[in-house]
Fold this sequence. Notes:
With 160 residues, the protein is mainly alpha-helical. It is 86% helix and 0% strand.
Amino acid sequence: xxxxxxxxxxVAIVANGLLAGLFFVFSVAIGPxxxxxxxxxxxxxxxxxxxxILNGMFVSVFFVAPLAAVGCVxxxxxxxxxxxxxxxxxxxxxxxxxxGITTAVNVPLNRELDQAPITTDQQRQAARQRFxxxxxxxxxxxxxxxxxxxxxxxxxxxxA
Length: 160
């Protein structure tokens, strides 16, 4: 493994691992837990999470994860490839898919929930019904892709 690839691969593993952990916690704890609360609590709590997660720490990890994975692919190719090239390409695809799912589906759903009128019980119920199952379904998808990226990056490290 080259002088530059090793550190970049570690950055990719850590960043993708952090995202996989975050999305996994939403899939197995936060989503099911929120499924047990009333509509007003659900909407208020999810709006608070949406506001809180937009911070420098999350945004940095969110952008670094796919960039580092793609950077690993480029370094592999630039160094005439290696036996781990297929693993790192698959990892980068998973990482980019995670980024794409989040920006194309989860973020627009978050914005829709944030802008939904919620002054009456019917409005809160409608906002939740438009949001919850779609958001959870796509969170499962990005949990799988981010866990796949992490697993494939770790495999890259093991076979390099």
